[in-house]
Amino acid sequence: MALLDPILVLELLLLGCCTGFLAGLLGIGGGMLMVPFLTVIFSNRGVEAGLALKMAVATAMATILFTSISSVRAHHARGAVRWDLVKTLAPGIVLGGLLSGAGLFAVIKGSALGLLFAGFVGFSATQMLLDRKPQPGRQMPGALGAGAAGAGIGLVAGLVGAGGAFMSVPFMVWCNVAIHNAVATSAALGFPIALSSTAGYVIAGWGLASPLPGTLGYLSLPALGVLALASVLMAPHGARAAHRLDTQRLKKVFAVLLYGLAGFMVWRMLRG
User: Fold this and answer.
1) What is the DSSP string of 53-77?
2) Contacts for 168 with CB less than 8 Å, ≥ 6 apart
3) Residue 1: what pLDDT?
4) 77-112 per-residue burial string, b: 16 or more CB within 10 A, e: under 16
5) What is the mean pLDDT of residues 221-231?
6) Residue 21 lies in a domain
7) Residue 29 · residue 163 · CB < 8 Å
8) pTM of the model
9) C-alpha count within 13 angstroms, C-beta hemisphere, residue 85
10) N or C: which end of the chain has fewer CB within 10 A?
């Protein structure tokens, strides 16, 4: 197969544009959208189902390395990022991401990973549908507690190919951090999550035989390049559209679609 198969490039461009736009519009991570479709794209090109899912998770997570930078710059310009919290949470996040990417990710079966991902999508859809905000009731824990929380966030995020906002934002709000600061700080935490997890995917999959050209560990470099470019270009358009549309109603409709996506992943993994 050619390194830059035109049909593959078109599929990835379409996926990257759609996920980038929706990420900017609805304030969600692109991983939960990229992973199912990337799994299908890779499977249709001769990659075994379990390996296709792992490559999809790794490639989707790696795109956050690029998308998080533009997001953090915008939040930082508004003074919304709590860099003190980034410093306390990041060490645990890096440790959790490495343990997940280089350890659990390599040994967990593709079918089990698919079911875990479906659960994550279903959980995210429920949060979006109910739009519940945790009630702040305490302060951020000390260095040890923050490190443990960061490790848990990095571990789970690394397994499902997400930036961790679905866990870090509720945790920070619960610890009495203002919601706009929590969202901005979560964007900054996306980079160390993506960096450590991606390094783990490369280590765990080193020497892996893949029918697709241009792979590095579990990572598909050609897919990463196309997806990152399209996502970074389209996310600002989605963010601008968010100011003109009723995003709360859109989120409820999108949540229903996510349930369908989660169901599709369960069916695909159980079918083998």
Assistant:
1) HHHHHHHHHHHHHHHHHHHHHHHHH
2) 89, 153, 182, 185, 186, 189
3) 46
4) eeebbbeebbebbbbbbbbbbbbbbbeebbeeebbe
5) 91
6) yes
7) yes
8) 0.81
9) 25
10) C
Q: Which two tokens stand for residue 58?
A: 């790794």
Q: Is residue 272 part of a domain?
A: no
Q: Is 269 contained in some domain?
A: no
Could you report the per-residue pLDDT of 74-93, keeping only the tens digit for each? 778 878 889 999 999 999 99
**Number of domains the chain contains:** 1
User: Residue 153's closest CA among 219, 95, 195?
Assistant: 95
- In a domain? residue 1: no
Rounded distance, CA 32 to CA 229, Å? 18
Tell me how long the chain is.
Answer: 272
Distance CA 212, CA 241 (A): 36
Q: How far apart, in whole angstroms, are the C-alpha atoms of residue 136 and residue 126?
A: 20
CA atoms within 13 A on the CB side of 217: 21
User: What CA–CA distance (Å, rounded) separates 158 from 106?
Assistant: 12
Best mean pLDDT range from 86-90, 115-119, 206-210: 86-90
List, in sequence order, every residue forming a beta bridge with 220; answer none if it has no partner.
Answer: 215
Domain of residue 127, residue span: 6-264
DSSP letter assigned to residue 139: P
